[in-house]
Design brief:
The protein is an alpha+beta fold. It has eight helices and nine strands. It has helices at 15-93, 99-182, 185-198, 219-227, 251-256, 318-321, 338-344, 350-368; strands at 202-206, 209-210, 232-233, 240-243, 270-275, 284-291, 294-301, 307-315, 330-332. Strands 8-7-6-5-9 form a five-stranded antiparallel β-sheet. Strands 2-1-4-3 form a four-stranded mixed β-sheet. It starts with 14 loop residues before the first helix and ends in an 18-residue tail after the last helix. It binds zinc ion. Zinc ion binds at residues 203, 210, 212-213, 215, 234, 236-237, 239.
Length: 386
């Protein structure tokens, strides 16, 4: 009898799913590149806006200088007018007849002189201000020059980056086309339909959850996704689900426990087996339970955990009652209360299925390591084993 070492049950992935993963990767890259290409002109536009702001500040500073210069000319004209007035008063004062008239003229002259000083003060103030105004203009000019240089640099970078992005975009579009052509058309429609409304059409399953919508999967759905033998869709978000054992935490203990597989106990009233091919049912797990003079048999699909057929009762201890099942079977660890097994009803809980599959992998690893003689798939510690 030869024990076949088959591909590890947990690592299977459908080719369609692999192509969908490629497709999703391409879709994401294409989206990212398109967004980046669209964002570059916006960055340039933002700098141009800043540039316009600096230009406005410069214009305002220059306009303020012009306003000051006009004001200064106005004050200078006023001073000239006042000086003419004073000289006119002085001429008049030579011709006055009375003391009162003379005093009145002197007053006028004093007023005019006061006015002149006031205008001169204002001119001085403008001259002091003019230094600050010049500084403002210089600063704005320097800023403008720096921004002009920066914008040229940004524009050049944006052109370069856009060209590189366009190149990558073409490459990803080609990869996308290849991936799409390789996927079953119905499945592709499902992917496209969900992607249109939800952004993505594919979701990884990790820690029993759909990672896209974060909803816990029903045990049966989870088992089906892990088995990787059929296409499974998330009940909640409709995304196509896939499982990557290398990324899921539950895969870790599998490696850690590799060297510490317990030997199945044969004295126990319960025995679990794996059968690689059982008629038309393919891979199955079988549990036998001895109870008094009877024994029972339950058969479960090894990939999904669903019970196949009804629970069967026969007279006698299971090895005598069901000898036809044990020929090619691999004995596994595992023991649960019969009441608990009854509660599972038609489907193994995910944790149970995990444990059985894990133990199966360890058993196979032991077998392939040559720890046992070929064909001796059922250990024989039990004294009553015949
Ligand atoms: Zn989901």
């Amino acid at each position: 009898m030869h024990v076949r070492i088959r591909a590890v049950l947990l690592l299977k992935m459908l080719p369609d799913v692999q192509n969908l993963i490629e497709l999703q990767h391409a879709d994401r890259e294409i989206l990212r590149l398109k967004e980046e290409i669209a964002a570059l002109p916006r960055r340039v536009a933002a700098i141009e806006e800043r540039l316009a702001g600096t230009k406005a500040i410069l214009e305002k500073a220059k306009a303020a200088i012009k306003t000051d210069e006009a004001a200064r000319r106005k004050y200078e004209t006023a001073i000239q007018d006042l000086q003419q007035k004073i000289s006119k008063y002085r001429d008049q004062s030579l011709e006055v007849k009375t003391n009162e008239q003379y005093k009145a003229l002197l007053h006028e002259i004093q007023f005019a002189e006061q006015d002149i000083r006031a205008n001169e003060d204002k001119i001085l103030e403008l001259m002091v201000n003019a230094e600050a105004r010049e500084k403002d203009v210089k600063a704005a000019e320097v800023e403008l020059k720096a921004e002009m240089a920066e914008i040229e640099k940004e524009k050049a970078e944006a052109r370069e980056r856009t060209a590189e992005d366009e190149k990558q975009l073409a490459e990803w579009n080609a990869k996308r086309g290849t991936a799409r052509a390789a996927v079953n058309p119905d499945l592709l429609r499902q992917y496209d339909r969900v992607a249109k409304y939800r952004g993505t059409g594919l979701s990884e399953v990790r820690d029993h959850k759909c990672m896209a919508c974060q909803v816990m999967l029903r045990p049966q759905t989870y088992n089906e996704v892990r088995a990787g033998t059929q296409i499974v869709v998330c009940d909640s978000c409709q995304r196509i689900l896939y499982y990557d054992a290398s990324k899921d935490q539950v895969a870790e203990p599998l490696v850690a426990q590799k060297r510490r597989r317990a030997r199945p106990k044969f004295e126990s009233g319960q025995a679990w087996y794996y059968v690689a091919s059982r008629g038309g049912e393919g891979e199955v797990f079988i549990v036998f339970i001895n109870s008094g003079r009877e024994s029972s048999r339950r058969v479960y699909d090894a990939a999904t955990g669903r019970q196949l057929g009804d629970t069967l009762l026969r007279e006698g201890e299971y090895r005598l009652a069901f000898p036809e099942e044990l020929g090619d079977a691999i004995r596994l660890n595992g023991s649960w209360e019969e009441a608990e097994i009854d509660e599972w009803a038609t489907e193994l809980p995910m944790v149970v299925l995990d444990l059985l599959q894990r133990d199966l992998n360890l058993a196979r690893a032991e077998t392939s390591a040559g720890a046992r003689a070929e064909g001796e798939t059922v250990p024989s510690e039990h004294p009553a084993a015949s």
